[in-house]
Amino acid sequence: MTAGKEVTTIEGIGQPGNLHPMQAAFVEHDGYQCGYCTSGQIMSAVALLKEPIGPSDEDVQHGMAGNICRCGAYPNIVAAVQQVRGHSA
Amino acid sequence: MHTFTYEKPMSTDKAVLANGRFIAGGTTLVDLMKLGVEEPPKLVDVTGLPLAQIEKLPNGGLLIGATVRNSDLAHDPTVMADYAVLSEALLSGASPQLRNMATTGGNLLQRTRCPYFRDPSAGGCNKREPGSGCSAIEGHHRMMAILGTSEKCIATHPSDMCVALTALEATIHIQGVKGKRTVAIGDFYKLPGDTPNIENVLESGDLITHVELPPPTKGSKQVYLKLRDRASYEFALSSAAVVAEVSGGHIKSVRIAMGGVGTRPWRSHEAEAALKGKAATPANFRTAAEAALKGAKTHPENAFKVELAKRCVTRALKMATA
What we know:
The complex is a heterodimer.
Chain A: H1 21-28, H2 38-48, H3 57-63, H4 74-85
Helix pairs in contact in A: 1-4
Chain B: E1 5-7, H1 12-18, E2 21-23, H2 29-34, E3 42-45, E4 54-56, E5 62-65, H3 70-74, H4 77-82, H5 84-91, H6 96-101, H7 104-108, H8 115-118, H9 135-138, H10 161-167, E6 171-176, E7 179-184, H11 185-188, E8 207-213, E9 221-227, E10 238-247, E11 250-259, E12 266-267, H12 269-275, H13 282-292, H14 304-321
Parallel strand pairs in B: 1-3, 2-3
Antiparallel strand pairs in B: 4-5, 5-8, 6-7, 6-8, 9-10, 10-11, 11-12
Helix pairs in contact in B: 5-10, 12-13, 13-14
């Protein structure tokens, strides 16, 4: 069903030495531990920047819902997303 | 997973004649195929059809294409302004990633989350395999329905969107091998009865092309209230969609539908009748909620839903008339 369509993966938004602002923010805020969910978290967070959601931390939580982090890095993930959105967490 | 063929027609005529299982976002069907619950030999991809538009109708209503994504529908300016209950219901369901994939037509046809339906190794399920029994009745049924159930099935209809569409009195446009027709959403879903495997009036080859909303009720206030175990990414234990018109402190008109408690999206004409012309007071709201749940049939684990649903309806009415 995706034949002929363009798919952007985590490798497509930034590279070592040239990180996407969201990747840099995840590093700065320690938005992961084991890293298993990180690619999905960051791709969702990048997409969220273009979605019509409110400014609050709760809005980010709902916007990121469905991305499960079993290490429990959620507060740091929200902080990273909010920094890139220009809202202080 | 069984093998299947795939085709992508570009016209509704060809899609209907393809005589296969339609797939759009795949958020229900692909899961069920992986679980071995559904084994369609032929998938017909409807995402190439010209059904992804939302159009205003000359009569003031709205025509929503079947492949409009749930996220696009929820954020459509007309839907947000005139059909807020639909936008709220959509945004309360699933997750952003799922809403980006799921479509209007697919949401209408999403299937129950009953664990016995979704797991062929978990025992009998009359919806999955007619005649094999209902494991939920004697098993785990905390999430199951309390309205519209039968001896054969107590599975809950999972959709939030359809509850809002029920309160909005949507009409479903269908194209089939014999031509086009429309069905009111109140007539679209069937009660489980003796045949819980038959969930709606669609016949082989029938394609949902659009959902039509009537012109918005001027001066009405709309609310979708959803109660669940988690604040997001969870199905309803009980929900209520209310479209109410209040004049001089009295209920001029009201439409009430419930989710999470019925075997189909549950319109309560009883609650509406109890409120018509009455003062908009908490006591009257409670009386209406009592009427809505009068026919409830519970099992040990889901008996709490009766009181929860009453409070849900009462509170939604309070919010819609404040």
